[in-house]
């Protein structure tokens, strides 16, 4: 409670604020500019997707926001340490599903007697009641990503960063996890910055879609998605907006073929 | 404000689809996770116990057939003669004593090697300067047969127990340290990054992420360390042959040689082999299997 008060006093109006961020890597071929002057604000409780072709610097940007790497220029401020969910589940194979979640609680300083109960709650939230004692390798891909989601939620960050978390899943499982993520987002009020190269996924989930161009990654355009939740990926308005975004994305990619 | 707006939107459509999703998910989960049980006892007996028993029987038969062909008990004793030596030692109450003298030396020495090798491995793995300074020497030492340490150890320490412990340490410490180093090196960077986003940095990161992730490499190092220290201990026992040091398996072998008693030599060799296999089977293999199985790295055929 004390922390909530402190936050209220600071009057936080962003879950994340990315200002004029650039990032270049030193490669044998010289300096390679990957991100160029990116400015994005994520409001508290907002769901934003970053959309871009493969290799445009989406993961690089998320790593910067997560504090795993430093920007070459610009500043990033977040409201506390964000939780990051990776494309691969990144669960620890030497721990059971439940213990993976408990570790996140423990590192956050949750006292031992409370951890077990909280873990069961989180498992229930991702509809994996009874999976506490399961080893990571005993779970299917979809179940692993749900445990990873529960582990990220266990950090109780105000900002959840997701790096193409459903890219490796089959379409049926992905659809279900979209529903779950929308539900959990509504229930917890967490802000989400979700990275994907799947246009329909971006539109299905987000309140705002930001399109990144490639080489270097720049913000090409932005759409506000007014379609009410719950949406389905097959819904006509979703398809319609996806089509529009895809056309712009193709235009962006085509530009690269011209020189 | 956000929450209110959103839940209103959620409430306006019926909650039917969400519940539906839950049950579909449960069905998918059930489809995708196969139940794995323990194999029945008969299965274990036929697959695991029977083959080595048959192999031993074949060796005994070949030995029995070969014995009259060689026809020289000072070169090849009969299985019965070797059996009699075992029986005598057992009746005298010496058999377990031979084994215990060597095994207690080996395990105690190995325990000290563990205490030295583990922090050493951690230092080499984590501190750049230490790695540059002694990393190459440490991995080079692994290819040096640890028996080579016996002569210098005898010169430094004399023919006594501390010389034997020194030889065990020199054999096992590099393996244990190297196992830990390669275990740490092979920790996927993804795990380290995942740990960092959860707040596992510094010592917390070492304890909660690096060490458990490096465990398979560490256990492999322990296993190899034991094999090395057992071999070098036998070499040391053959050389440091004093009655007041107690008769271990190496001394037994040497005594057999000086007495030209081939049955006793066979007895010693069989015991050394047996102890080496037994320790591996009782301690290191189960440890390794447990570590690997917990991570799904061991497939049951
Ligand atoms: N550590 C690094 N050193 C050098 N170059 C890097 C490094 N990390 C990323 N890059 C380069 O930056 C570019 C963007 O990489 P990034 O992984 O952020 O792309 P992405 O948009 O996440 O792609 P994908 O959709 O395939 O995951 C790539 O061209 C990559 O080669
Ligand atoms: Mg990526």
TrEMBL record, chain A:
InterPro entries, alphabetized: AAA+_ATPase, ABC_transporter-like_ATP-bd, ABC_transporter-like_CS, ABC_transporter_ATP-bind, P-loop_NTPase
GO terms for MF: ATP binding
CDD domains per UniProt: ABC_NrtD_SsuB_transporters
Protein name, UniProt field: ABC transporter ATP-binding protein
Domain ABC transporter residue range list: 16-241
Keywords, alphabetical: ATP-binding, Nucleotide-binding, Transport
PANTHER family (alphabetical): ALIPHATIC SULFONATES IMPORT ATP-BINDING PROTEIN SSUB (PTHR42788:SF13), TAURINE IMPORT ATP-BINDING PROTEIN-RELATED (PTHR42788)
Pfam families: ABC_tran
């Amino acid at each position: 409670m004390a922390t909530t008060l402190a936050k209220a006093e600071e009057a936080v109006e962003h879950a994340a604020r990315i200002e004029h961020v650039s990032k270049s890597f030193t490669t044998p071929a010289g300096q390679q500019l990957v991100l160029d002057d990116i400015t994005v604000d994520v409001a508290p409780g907002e769901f934003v997707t970053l959309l871009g072709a493969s290799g445009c610097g989406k993961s690089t940007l998320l790593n910067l926001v997560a504090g795993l790497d430093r920007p070459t220029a610009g500043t990033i401020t977040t409201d506390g340490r964000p939780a990051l969910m990776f494309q691969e589940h990144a669960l620890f194979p030497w721990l059971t599903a439940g213990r993976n979640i408990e570790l996140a609680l423990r590192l956050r300083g949750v006292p031992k007697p409370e951890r077990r109960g909280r873990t069961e709650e989180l498992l229930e939230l991702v509809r994996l009641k009874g999976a506490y004692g399961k080893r990571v390798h005993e779970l299917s891909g979809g179940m692993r990503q749900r445990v990873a989601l529960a582990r990220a939620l266990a950090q109780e960050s105000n900002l959840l960063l997701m790096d193409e978390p459903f890219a490796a899943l089959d379409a049926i499982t992905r659809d279900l996890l979209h529903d779950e993520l929308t539900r959990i987002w509504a229930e917890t009020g967490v802000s989400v910055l979700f990275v994907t190269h799947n246009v329909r996924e971006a539109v299905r989930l987000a309140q705002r879609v930001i399109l990144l161009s490639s080489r270097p990654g720049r913000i090409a355009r932005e759409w506000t998605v007014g379609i009410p939740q719950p949406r389905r990926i097959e819904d006509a308005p979703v398809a319609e907006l996806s089509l529009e975004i895809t056309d712009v994305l193709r235009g962006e990619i085509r530009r690269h073929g011209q020189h | 404000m956000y929450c209110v707006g959103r839940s209103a939107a959620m409430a306006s459509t019926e909650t039917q689809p969400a519940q539906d999703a839950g049950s579909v998910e449960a069905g998918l989960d059930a489809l995708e996770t196969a139940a794995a049980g323990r194999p029945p006892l008969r299965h274990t007996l036929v697959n695991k116990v029977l083959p080595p028993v048959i192999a031993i029987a074949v060796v005994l038969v070949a030995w029995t057939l070969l014995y009259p062909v060689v026809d020289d008990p000072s070169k090849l004793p009969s299985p019965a003669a070797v059996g009699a030596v075992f029986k005598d030692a057992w009746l005298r109450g010496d058999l377990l004593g031979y084994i215990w003298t060597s095994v207690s030396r080996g395990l105690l020495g190995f325990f000290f090697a563990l205490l030295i090798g583990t922090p050493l491995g951690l230092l080499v793995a984590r501190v750049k300067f230490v790695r540059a300074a002694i990393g190459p020497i440490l991995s080079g030492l692994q290819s040096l047969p640890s028996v080579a340490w016996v002569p210098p150890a005898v010169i430094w320490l004399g023919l006594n127990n501390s010389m034997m412990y020194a030889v065990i340490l020199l054999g096992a410490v590099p393996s244990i340290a190297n196992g830990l180093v390669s275990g740490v090196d092979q920790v996927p960077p993804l795990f380290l990054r995942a740990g960092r986003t959860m707040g596992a940095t510094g010592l917390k990161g070492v304890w909660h992420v690096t060490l458990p992730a490096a465990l398979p490499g560490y256990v492999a190092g322990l296993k190899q360390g034991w094999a090395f220290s057992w071999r070098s201990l036998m070499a040391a026992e053959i050389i440091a042959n004093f009655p007041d040091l107690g008769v271990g398996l190496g001394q037994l072998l040497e005594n057999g040689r000086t007495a030209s008693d081939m049955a006793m030599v066979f007895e010693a060799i069989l015991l050394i082999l047996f102890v080496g296999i037994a320790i591996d089977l009782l301690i290191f293999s189960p440890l390794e299997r447990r570590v690997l199985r917990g991570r799904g790295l061991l497939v049951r055929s």
